[in-house]
Amino acid sequence: MAKTTKNIWLIGGEDCALCDDANTLLDLSIAANPDIPVEISYVNVKSTTILFHHYGARIPVILNRDSDVALYWPFELPQVQEFIRS
């Protein structure tokens, strides 16, 4: 039976160094778990008013779109890996 692809958003902003760091941690976590199918979408926090009001002061945020569970900065590699596995 095929595993369901996880739909993950990395919510960030332009010229956001922390968002770049989060992107690197996310890439490393996905590479460390090749058996888990993940689809990543990079979403600008300013793309909608709702995103901006909910996450604007908290970026970067990794959001599992399937469960609406979010991982808020600051986070480190082990936390991101667990987030991908959960």
Features:
86 residues, alpha+beta, Glutaredoxin, 4-stranded mixed beta sheet, 3 helices, 37% helix
Compact summary:
With about 90 residues, this protein is an alpha+beta fold. The chain has helices at about 15-30, 50-55, 75-85; strands at about 5-10, 40-45, 60-65, 70.
What do you see in this structure?
- This protein has 86 residues and is α+β, with helices and mostly antiparallel strands.
- 37% of the residues lie in helices and 26% in strands.
- It has a single domain (6-85), classed as Glutaredoxin (3-Layer(aba) Sandwich).
- A 4-stranded mixed β-sheet has the order 2-1-3-4, covered by helices on one side.
- Strand 1 (6-12), helix 1 and strand 2 (38-44) form a beta-alpha-beta unit.
- Helix 1 crosses helix 3.
- The two termini are 18 Å apart.
- 22% of the residues are buried.
- The model has no long low-confidence stretch (mean pLDDT 96).
Topology:
Blueprint: E1 6-12, H1 17-32, E2 38-44, H2 49-55, E3 61-64, E4 69-72, H3 77-85
Parallel strand pairs: 1-2
Antiparallel strand pairs: 1-3, 3-4
Note poorly predicted spans.
none
Please state roughly what percent of the residues sit in beta strands, choosing from under 5%, 5-15%, 15-25%, 25-35%, 35-45% or over 45%.
25-35%
Number of helices: 3
State the share of residues found in helices, binned by percent.
25-40%
What's the alpha carbon Rg, rounded to whole Å?
Answer: 12 Å
Tell the overall outline.
globular
